[in-house]
């Protein structure tokens, strides 16, 4: 009997030792990198699940990460004091080719003119790139054939080419990043789909704030896009949703949609560009709930090759609200209960204002006080059958105009609410701002843009 008990004890002890050893072999380790040491050497000595913490300092190296499930972060969490510069200016600073990698808290610098990238993800998924400064490179960040990654809270400014570029990548989230003062800000090219771009800032880029080419089914929501040559440019890109963005003071176009179908464009504020929205050879899109105001040439322009687009519940207040090349589009939905863009009780058509206070919706009669004008609004190549007018008791707080103390309801109800000063500014800018491409030249312009 004693022999049986001893054997049982020995078996339990062996099992415990095996469990302990196997557990210790799988335990993640923490590696601390000091100034003068190599981040790459630390990476080379890691296993899946390990953590590398980098002390503040300057590190000159090019880092390749091939270990799965690895975190590399600065100790301070402050990119300004933990700087990684390219040792070889012809190679990407961080080259990630594994899944579930986290890079956090670095300032990353490479040569601006060597066509290399601050952080490059190649065939990666489930990575998190956050709180990094990827400025003053040739290209801030580049994702190729990568999916389901999180790119958040990064600065990608003053890069020679783009802030960030995605190619053949899907399901990624880009949020709260800054991509400003680059050639283009944020670029999706060649079969990028199902990406969500939210809360980003793209300003002062020499070309486009956001540029989609051959990329479909993406969501561009609640971004700030200002003072670029062009705010948003889509070409050959279908089924994209563009909503809730502030698109302000871009030079040529707030938004240019070219050869792109089935777009949903809703709830955007597009002010003070040469032209608010331009549709070129684009069909079956819906534009609703947008504010297009104080644009210097027109609020909305559609070339003759645009068909079956629907525009309703938009607020237009420009010297020229609409330029449209055919009558094959729809300018209202059916009348139905619902709070419209100026607080009226019904959805129908659009609100047609002018900076001088003489727009159709500002002067039309509404004897039954339902917020719909008593007559249709007819213009060259379009008819709005249910144009909106102001109501005395709007059902929602009026939406503010960007850079204006006047809200939408008071502006639409009071024809004198636009100040003389602002009228003078608009006239001055119209006289001194270069005119955008007209429809006869736009096909050639599209080809030039695709080559940029």
UniProtKB/TrEMBL annotation:
Residues 431-452 are annotated as: Disordered. Pathway: Protein modification; protein ubiquitination. Keywords: Repeat, Ubl conjugation pathway. Pfam families: NosD (PF05048). Residues 190-357 form the Periplasmic copper-binding protein NosD beta helix domain. The keyword Nucleotidyltransferase does not apply. This is Surface layer protein B. It comes from Methanosarcina barkeri 3.
């Amino acid at each position: 009997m004693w022999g049986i008990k001893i054997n049982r004890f020995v078996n339990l002890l062996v099992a415990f030792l095996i469990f302990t050893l196997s557990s210790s072999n799988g335990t993640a380790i923490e590696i601390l990198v000091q100034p003068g040491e190599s981040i790459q050497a630390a990476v080379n000595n890691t296993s899946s699940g390990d953590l590398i913490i980098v002390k503040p300092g300057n590190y000159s190296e090019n880092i390749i990460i091939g270990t799965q499930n690895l975190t590399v972060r600065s100790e301070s969490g402050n990119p300004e004091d933990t700087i990684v510069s390219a040792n070889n200016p012809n190679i990407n600073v961080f080259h990630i080719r594994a899944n579930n990698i986290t890079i956090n808290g670095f300032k990353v610098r490479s040569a601006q003119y060597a066509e290399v990238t601050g952080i490059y993800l190649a065939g990666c998924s489930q990575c998190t790139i956050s709180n990094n400064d990827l400025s003053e490179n040739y290209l801030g960040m580049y994702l190729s054939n990568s999916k389901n990654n999180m790119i958040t809270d990064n600065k990608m400014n003053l890069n020679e080419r783009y802030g960030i570029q995605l190619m053949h990548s899907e399901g990624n989230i880009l949020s709260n990043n800054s991509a400003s003062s680059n050639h283009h800000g944020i670029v999706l090219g060649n079969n990028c789909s199902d990406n969500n771009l939210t809360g980003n800032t793209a300003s002062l880029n020499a070309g486009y704030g956001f540029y989609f080419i051959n990329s479909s089914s993406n969501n561009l929501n609640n971004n700030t896009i200002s003072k670029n040559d062009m705010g948003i440019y889509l070409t050959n890109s279908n089924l994209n949703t563009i909503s809730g963005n502030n698109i302000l003071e871009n030079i040529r176009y707030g938004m240019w949609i070219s050869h792109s179908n089935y777009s949903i464009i809703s709830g955007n504020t597009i002010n003070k560009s040469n032209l608010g929205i331009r549709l070129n050879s684009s069909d079956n899109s819906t534009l609703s709930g947008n504010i297009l105001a104080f644009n210097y040439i027109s609020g909305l322009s559609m070339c003759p090759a645009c068909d079956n687009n629907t525009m309703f519940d938009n607020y237009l207040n420009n010297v020229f609200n609409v330029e449209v090349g055919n009558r094959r589009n729809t300018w209202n939905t059916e009348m139905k209960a619902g709070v419209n863009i100026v607080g009226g009780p019904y959805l129908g058509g659009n609100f047609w204002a002018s900076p001088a206070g003489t727009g159709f919706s500002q002067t039309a009669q509404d004897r039954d006080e339902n917020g719909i004008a008593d007559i249709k609004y007819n213009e060259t190549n379009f008819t709005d059958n249910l144009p909106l007018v102001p109501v005395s008791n709007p059902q929602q707080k009026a939406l503010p105009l960007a850079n204006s103390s006047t809200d939408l309801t008071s502006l639409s109800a009071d024809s004198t609410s636009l100040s003389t000063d602002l009228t003078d500014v608009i006239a001055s800018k119209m006289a001194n701002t270069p005119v955008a491409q007209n429809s006869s030249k736009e096909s050639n312009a599209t080809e030039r843009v695709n080559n940029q």
